[in-house]
Design a protein that fits this description.
The protein is mainly β and about 240 residues long. The chain contains 2 helices and 14 strands. A 5-stranded antiparallel beta sheet has the order 6-5-14-13-11. A 5-stranded mixed beta sheet has the order 8-7-9-10-12, with no helix packed on it. Strands 1-2 form a two-stranded antiparallel sheet.
Length: about 240
């Protein structure tokens, strides 16, 4: 049997394709491409610069130092923030403090103490405690942390005063007092007359005259009056 030789030099019985490598008989031999690694392209070296202000390294094409903000283009440091900068609101001035037009004087009244027959010793009489009043309604009583009671007219040193003794309310010109079902009652009497003997009715508002005095507890006398210009100046 006649054999032929393929382009790669293999003897083959088949005359159309090589029995060994499968190349077409009569085709030109194609040498296998050698796998030559492509030459690597080195990345261009990036030169660096040092910040003149903080010596922090930075890229040669950087416009600003990322550490301190130095401007490589102008050679200056950034300007300090100002309240005039866009988006920075100016400081808000504090709201003016309200001035109390009224005050409540809290007195120790020895005459009231004598008729109450209290077992507690009476404090020494002296100048009153002057309490500015801004709210339209204030509580008279003794504080209690456990019950969350914080009266604006604090009579805490007089144990004859209830925790919630009375409520003083105003429309800006007139004043009323209301007993809040206190233990020893709330009394109202004029300064020129004798001490009151009967308490006001609980739950009913009693309007106060200019010279009225409110008596509570064992020795406490309350006087509601207009604040003086000196007192108002001291609150500003």
């Amino acid at each position: 049997m006649t054999s032929v030789t393929c382009p790669s030099g293999h003897p083959s019985v088949s005359t159309d394709y090589c029995d060994v490598c499968g190349l077409p008989i009569g085709a030109a031999a194609t040498p296998a491409a050698s796998s030559v690694p492509a030459p690597s392209v080195a990345a261009p070296a990036v030169t660096a610069q040092a910040c003149p202000n903080c010596s922090e390294p930075a890229a040669s094409d950087a416009l600003f130092c990322e550490n301190c903000g130095y401007d490589f283009t102008t050679g200056t440091m950034p300007r300090a923030a100002s309240s005039l900068d866009l988006g920075t609101p100016p400081p808000v001035p504090p709201a003016p403090q309200a001035v109390a037009d009224w005050v409540v004087e809290r007195w120790v009244d020895p005459d009231w103490y004598e008729v109450q027959q209290s077992d507690d010793p009476c404090p020494s009489p002296g100048l009153p405690v002057v309490i500015p009043v801004i709210a339209k309604s204030v509580l008279v009583g003794r504080p209690s942390k456990s019950r969350g009671i914080t009266p604006e007219i604090d009579c805490g040193d007089d144990t004859g005063v209830s925790r919630r003794q009375a409520q003083l309310t105003t429309d800006g010109q007139r004043w009323w007092v209301e007993d809040l079902q206190s233990s020893n009652g709330t009394f109202v009497g004029p300064s020129s007359g004798p001490l009151p003997e009967d308490p006001i009715s609980s739950g009913q508002r009693r309007e106060l005259n200019t010279d009225d005095r409110v008596y509570v507890g064992a020795w406490t006398r309350l006087v509601v009056r207009k604040s003086t210009p000196e007192e108002q100046a001291g609150q500003a």
